[in-house]
User: Which sequence fits this backbone?
């Protein structure tokens, strides 16, 4: 039975997982948490994430050859500068978008994010120098920081605390399947019509479709987050902490989130290695371009499709085991690549790396969703993604410097060592966060002053 409506607010259900409000036609619109209950909206946001992935997929296959053939760039550091530019802006936008979404909702920022993809494609189509491409990737960083952050946050809003790992696994899987589709289609267009403008016209078409789906089909999901907020806080609103307090809480006050942030940060060193350094390494070993594409593609394909099963697994056994074992597998995969002398060995290494990424990537996000209060979850996810995608900004510079001093092989060994350090940190510092397996109280509940609004 419903409680009477508040004088200045919507009617509440006596069930903590259900919230009702009057829509524009005066009827009651109910918001119930759950994947099955919200399958249509969840499917819409899954499609949107697929399109987001397709947008960035164009970049991965089209830009490295553009640097060499159109602008005659031979320096490794200069070539991977587009990754650093993209990562730096995306990291900052993750933080900004997460914070803004807690105040202004998810859908508005999602639509704004799609708009920033347009100058990305247009600038590269008309680029007269490599710095145009670097600037274009600044716009792509804004696009990805806004759109992907809002898409995954919306899915978490809809599902609530049950099956959160599955929800994030589906999100990340759809995104990286989209990356593969975008890369594949862009490769066909390049082979048929050249490096420009065909791939970027395709990107503009994807952006138009994504914007249309976001505007016409997607709903604002903050009301679903409010349902979880009320169920967790017993009807009282949880004040949103200041950004500086939330950043310090996520970065060092909460040891679990510290472990998560460092794991995400170093995770992007691995992806930077694959994007910027693996092709050069395998070409030096005598592998042709098609063979290199297969190795990199296997890594991304196993990573993408494996995340759904990884999310289900983490909902059953908790987050710590998949995250720790995944980081170990990533390092082991790179090690297999280093010690192998044959193409088959490199295939095994790429697959093992993909499996490791599938175990780690969605479950780090889920751990943040487990811990953060729904009223400031968007900001918490934004800070985690700031740390994570900051690895895109820093990783190419560090690995590029190592490769200048000791060769690309040295960069691979450095990444293996970083994975070992990251896995050890998670094993020793991180406590289980999955609600049914958690044995410790979240740090912010023990120390509310750490996330107090003032």
Assistant:
């Amino acid at each position: 039975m419903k409680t009477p409506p508040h004088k200045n607010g919507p009617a509440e259900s006596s069930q903590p997982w259900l919230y009702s409000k009057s829509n524009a036609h005066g009827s009651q619109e109910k918001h119930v948490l759950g994947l099955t209950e919200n399958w249509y909206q969840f499917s819409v946001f899954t499609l949107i994430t697929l399109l987001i992935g397709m947008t960035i997929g164009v970049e991965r296959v089209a830009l490295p050859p553009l640097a060499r053939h159109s602008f005659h760039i031979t320096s490794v550091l200069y070539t991977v500068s587009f990754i650093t530019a993209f990562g730096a802006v995306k990291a900052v936008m993750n933080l900004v978008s997460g914070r803004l979404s807690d105040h202004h909702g998810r859908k508005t920022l999602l639509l704004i994010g799609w708009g920033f993809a347009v100058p990305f494609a247009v600038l590269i189509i008309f680029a007269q120098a490599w710095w145009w491409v670097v600037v274009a990737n600044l716009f792509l960083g804004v696009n990805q920081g806004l759109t992907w952050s809002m898409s995954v946050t919306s899915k978490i809003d809809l599902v609530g605390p049950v099956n959160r790992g599955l929800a994030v696994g589906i999100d990340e899987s759809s995104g990286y399947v989209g990356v593969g589709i975008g890369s594949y289609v862009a490769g066909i267009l390049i082979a048929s019509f050249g490096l420009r403008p065909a791939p970027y016209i395709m990107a503009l078409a994807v952006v138009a479709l994504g914007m249309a789906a976001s505007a016409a089909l997607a709903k604002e999901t903050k009301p679903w987050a409010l349902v979880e907020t009320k169920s967790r806080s017993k009807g009282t609103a949880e004040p949103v902490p200041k950004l500086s307090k939330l950043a310090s809480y996520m970065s060092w006050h909460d040891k679990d989130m510290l472990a998560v942030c460092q794991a995400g940060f170093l995770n992007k060193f691995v992806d930077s290695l694959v994007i910027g350094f693996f092709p050069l390494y395998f070409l030096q070993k005598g592998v042709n371009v098609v063979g290199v594409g297969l190795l990199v593609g296997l890594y991304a394909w196993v990573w993408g499709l494996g995340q759904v099963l990884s999310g289900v697994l983490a909902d059953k056994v908790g987050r710590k085991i998949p995250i720790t074992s995944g980081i170990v597998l990533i390092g082991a995969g790179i090690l297999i690549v280093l010690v192998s002398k044959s193409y088959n060995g490199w295939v095994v290494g790429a697959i093992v790396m993909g499996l490791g990424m599938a175990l780690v990537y969605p479950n780090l996000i889920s751990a943040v969703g487990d811990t953060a209060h729904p009223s400031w979850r968007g900001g918490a996810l934004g800070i985690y993604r700031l740390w994570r995608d900051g690895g895109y900004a820093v990783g190419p510079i560090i690995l590029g410097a190592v490769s200048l001093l000791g060769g690309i092989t040295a960069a691979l060994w450095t990444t293996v060592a970083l994975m070992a350090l990251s896995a050890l940190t998670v094993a020793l510092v991180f406590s289980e966060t999955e609600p049914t397996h958690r044995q410790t109280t979240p740090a912010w509940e023990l120390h509310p002053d750490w996330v107090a609004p003032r």
